[in-house]
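Late entry, written up from scratch paper. The run itself happened at the end of the previous shift, but nothing got recorded in the book at the time, so transcribing now.
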Amino acid sequence: MTYAYAPALSASQAAPWPLLASGSAWPLAHRPEAAGEARKITKEVLARWEVAEEAADSVLLTVSELVTNAVEHAQPPLNLELSRDPGTRRVHIEVSDGGPAATDGDWAAGGTPDEHGRGLEIIDQLASAHGDHQEPGHSIHWADVNARDWPDPWLVATPKAPLPHTSR
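Output as recorded:
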């Protein structure tokens, strides 16, 4: 089961999401630290799924690029969704946001042109497919990262402590 778009939660509403066989979703604070928080969540999820280190690195970088783009170019709320397909050994990443912002964030607005525009090129290299679509009130940016060399144990989720949740 995969969870879709979820509205941003306040600190008092945020709760740990349970480990599911196929995926989970987390609200993120719409601030520059969100990419680091998303990497931390993703790293823990991939470890629980026993994803090989090489594949995990590709997923982590893809997550970081998608979240950074959302913080810099979109409005809140910001949400991360991770799911996996045991049949194809693919991780599906979705980052939803509140749609395009009228102006870019401070980092994007303050940088030089050669400091920008590499994110989608990186995702092109790492993902087997990626794209985005608009829905009323939000955008979803997604990528699929293949990792056919993952060990077979990744197919079985073992019960462990609750997955991380965001704090605000």
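Residues 74 and 100 are 4 Å apart (CA to CA).
(Scratch paper discarded after transcription.)
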